[in-house]
Amino acid sequence: MTTPVIRTAAKAIVVHDGRILLQRATWDGRECYFLPGGGQHPGEALADTVRREVEEETGLDVRVERMLWLREYIGAHHGGDPADHRIEAVFACTPLSDPHQLGGHAADDLQTGLEWVPLDKAPSLNLLPHTLRQPIANLATGHPETAYLGDVA
C-alpha cells in the first residue's frame, strides 16, 4: 500500500469582462475544462503558487485578491486511489497583463488551449471538479460564497 501524501495546490478564478479564464483539456478521452493553477512548492506561499502557476500556464500576470474556496479530495472516499489526498485553495485573481495575450510557457500535459468563458456558462461545461461549476456561476451575481467546500470530487 502506498503511503498517502497530502498535495496542496492553488487554483485561480481569473475574471475579465464577465468571463472566466479556463484551461481547455482532454481527459479520459473527453473535452473538459480546468481552472489554471497547480501544486505548491515547499516554502512557497499559496498566493505565490497561484501567481506562478497562472503565469506558467496562461502567460498572464495576476494580482491575487482573496481566497474564495478551500476544497479537499480524498481519493479513498470517492472510489479513487487511497493515497490521493489533495487540498486546493481557490483564489480570486485580477489580470495585470493584457488578458488577450495568452500563452504560457509551461502548459499542463492535458491542456489543449485557453478560453475566456462567460461566468453563467460554467454549469453547462464539463468543468472539473464539477463541484465548482455552480459557485463559479454565482460569481456573476457579485455575491460569491466564500466557503470550505469539503471533501468533494
Automatic annotation (TrEMBL):
UniProt keyword Hydrolase present: yes
Q: Which InterPro entries has this protein been placed in?
A: NUDIX_hydrolase-like_dom_sf (IPR015797), NUDIX_hydrolase_CS (IPR020084), NUDIX_hydrolase_dom (IPR000086)
State the PROSITE patterns in the record. NUDIX, NUDIX_BOX
Annotated keywords: Hydrolase
Q: List each copy of the Nudix hydrolase domain by range.
A: 5-140
Q: Hydrolase: present as a keyword of the record? A: yes
Cofactor(s) recorded for this entry are: Mg(2+)
- In terms of domain of life, where is this protein from? Bacteria
Q: Which GO terms describe its molecular function?
A: hydrolase activity
Descriptive protein name: ADP-ribose pyrophosphatase YjhB, NUDIX family
Q: Which organism is it from?
A: Streptomyces aidingensis
